[in-house]
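FIELD: query
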Amino acid sequence: MNKKYLTSACALALAATTLTGCGDSFNPDATLVKINTGDSTDTITLGYGNFVARYQQAMYDQFLMAYYGEDMWTSDLSGSGSTLQEETKDGVLEDMEAQYLTKLHAADYGVELSDEQTTAIADAAAEFIADNSEETLEEMGATEEYVQQYLEYRTYYSLVKAAAMEAADADITDDEAWMRTFTYVVFDTTGSIDDDGNLVEYTDDELASLKEQAESLAAAEDFDAEVESLGVTSSTYSYLKGEEEDSTMDMSLITAAESLAEGEVSAVIEVEDAGYYVIRMDADHDEDASASKREELQETAFEDLMDSWIDSIEWTVNEKAWERVKTQAENK
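FIELD: result
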């Protein structure tokens, strides 16, 4: 079993000791989710769903309770219009569906748990049960079977996702992941902030001075030394070669960067309502940024694949049963 999931088992044990509150009484063998894959039918029990939700509660209690207090579960912490309990339970259902589907499609990628992985999962589940009190296990609705099932699902998800992303990589061309990186300095012309927090527009003389500094940087023999001499701040930005639309950087800068060879510095670029920019092309092909872009494309391909898998099955949740699973500290 890989290290990631051995660590996950340890995290479970730690989280369980922090769980508070008692769960609602229900039949753990009741069906929470009915699944029709087209070829077969399957179910997920309410007991398992309750355990996963209560485990997530324990994690949040451990890391968030000190900041938000016991009312956090009935509060809209994200501003989405939903309580933390609602968001958590929605996330649990989404995760369970994704994990179920990756296990369902494991054979498509030749993924099968080895005897060593299976044994490690069983050992981690047994250790979890042994390391926690009966009261904690009861509060969490934890059984050795549920813990083992949880770790198995997560392992399949990790392995199948990695295999699917590797398969998707074959369809990603170098041009689709070719990232260029430049350093830029902006001489902000929007104004300064006074002691009262108000924006004060620059005078014509101040604007002229900023432009002179920008021109000095553009003409400097040593870009970095001039940045230091001027006392300004430089930043870096990576973009896709040939990019025609960018949601973060003004396209006038991307256009200017496209005309630069590696090591070249641009003339002053004026961006309306922003400032004077000077950029230096650092890497025509940034290998690290390109690797990150390739991984991003792999992730997108996996998300699209997951969407297609979701569309191919019927996943029916017993909402009335799911309502009985609560994550508040006062869940009686």
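FIELD: remark
The first strand starts at residue 31 and ends at 36.
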